[in-house]
Fold each of these.
Amino acid sequence: MASSSNPGATGTDAPSISITVERNPPQSRLLELGIKSWPKWGCPPGRFPLKFDAEEMCYLVKGKVTAYIKGSSESVEFGAGDLVIFPKGLSCTWDVSAPVDKYYKFASSSS
């Protein structure tokens, strides 16, 4: 009796770690999150392997990225004006086609 009504609900190895992209969120959402108080980071075009040891939320001020998720054929594109969430444990390679300037924030642990 296999059931797929709630995939991913079990505590098994997260089968689908994915990147969430919120395209052009409204200014009210950015103010609510306090984006302008977050640290800034930037990088030039190139390829960069990244591993997220904590969940990261970032807002791209400029740039264009295609992220290739390790162990998957999935890729995600995001760029200027996008709010992006990278889940804890994600490994990916950023293929940066236009220089990136972003605000970022790591999820605070509750310990």
Amino acid sequence: AAAGLGRIGLVPASPEQEKRSDCLVAAAASGKAAAGEEAGEESGAALAKTLQLGVFFGLWYLFNIYFNIYNKQV
């Protein structure tokens, strides 16, 4: 039970756990450097999703104008 509490910061970690934590942080940092190449692809996908959302809002706005005019005529 105490080992689980140490992971969430309620109990001080042992020196062995701190070493493992430092190794994990270093591994994560090196993984981020490798992921930098993929960041360009992800930003392109994010841009496409943002543009798609903008198009959907634009279409909704235009169809809403048509719908309102039609309802006023009826």
Amino acid sequence: MRYVASYLLAALGGNPSPSAKDIKKILDSVGIEADDDRLNKVISELNGKNIEDVIAQGIGKLASVPAGGAVTISAAPGSAAPAAGSAPAAEEKKDEKKEESEESDDDMGFGLFD
């Protein structure tokens, strides 16, 4: 990812076709040592392509990736009862975890605002 980001920085900075030297210079400026194999792979994949088009294609691909939203699963009518019965058990487990985390704070010997 760092190689792609460096390539994009160079391209957006006005260099339409960044070289390995350009990308290494960007990476060196933040203390990252470049891996030549990965760097050459990024350059070969992006060289000669319009960066705006590549970004637009990437956004289109990201639109199809689930973003951690709620997942609904359709179930048979008879299976709804067991699922409803397991909900209180899940809440009890969450409460137990909260209590444990509060206790671990007490073990530290000091409070946040002391």
